[in-house]
Amino acid sequence: MTDDHAADGAAGAPAMALPFDADSLAAPLETERMTLRPIEPGDSDDVWEYQRLPEVLRYIPWPVRSREEAHVHTLKRAGMRRLAEDGDAVHFAMALRGERSMARVEDSGHRDRVVGDVMVRVSSAADAQLELGWVLHPAFQGRGLAAEAVGEVVRFTFETLHPHRLNAHVDVRNTASAALCRRLGMRLEATLIEDVWDDGWQNSQIYGLLRREWEARADSAAS
Is the distance from CB of 152 to CB of 134 less than 8 angstroms? Predict the structure, then answer.
């Protein structure tokens, strides 16, 4: 699975395939149950259904927003289509096939419901590092959907963007996301003590996965 573009070490400095424009995707990503595509303004109603929930906000650094404020937030994230510099991000909507969206679409009658999303953010272009983040509506948890979606985004990210490593920051109380990190082969690298204030100081964890580690797991699964 190795290619010249992603070579590290003696072959040269790490380099990602940036800039990347989400509009350049020939087709959305597909899994067994979902279509993963850049989030769109029309997803606002579906996103609101999980963005407003206290159990979701507990682990994600989103403030409590009104429906109108949440719509503006979705518009902002929908406009984030390009990865080039540190801080740039793209958000992939998790559209569950066969699940009717909360928003009607005049031309087709309905669309598949967005039940969560996966973020890819440039944490260090110079060091070829990307950060992953994800959220899933609690009503759809326990079905393996997060693992299915994030696993596909990890595959796409390594094969298309060629990072040297992926990072994930997880609230230490969020045991489900920590378990997903481990399931994806990510390694717990650090625990940050009292780095987040949330009705008291909370700890967070950093998980990491190197490209060569992902390739070894992918090759092992294919053999």
Answer: no
Element (H, E) at 117: strand 112-124
Tell me the C-alpha distance between 58 and 170, whole Å.
12
Mean pLDDT by 10 residues, the chain (223 residues): 44 84 96 98 96 93 93 97 98 97 71 97 97 98 98 98 97 96 98 91 96 94 85
Tell me the C-alpha distance between 120 and 133, whole Å: 7
Rounded to 5 degrees, φ, ψ at 31 are -120, -175
Residue with tokens 């679409």: 105
The residues, ordered by sequence, that sit 6+ positions from 211 with a Cβ below 8 Å of its Cβ are 6, 8, 158, 162, 163, 164, 165
Rounded Cα gap, residues 175 and 128, in angstroms: 28
**Residue in this structure with the two tokens 């699940």, named with its chain if needed:** 99
Measure the CA–CA gap between 129 and 107, rounded to whole angstroms: 41
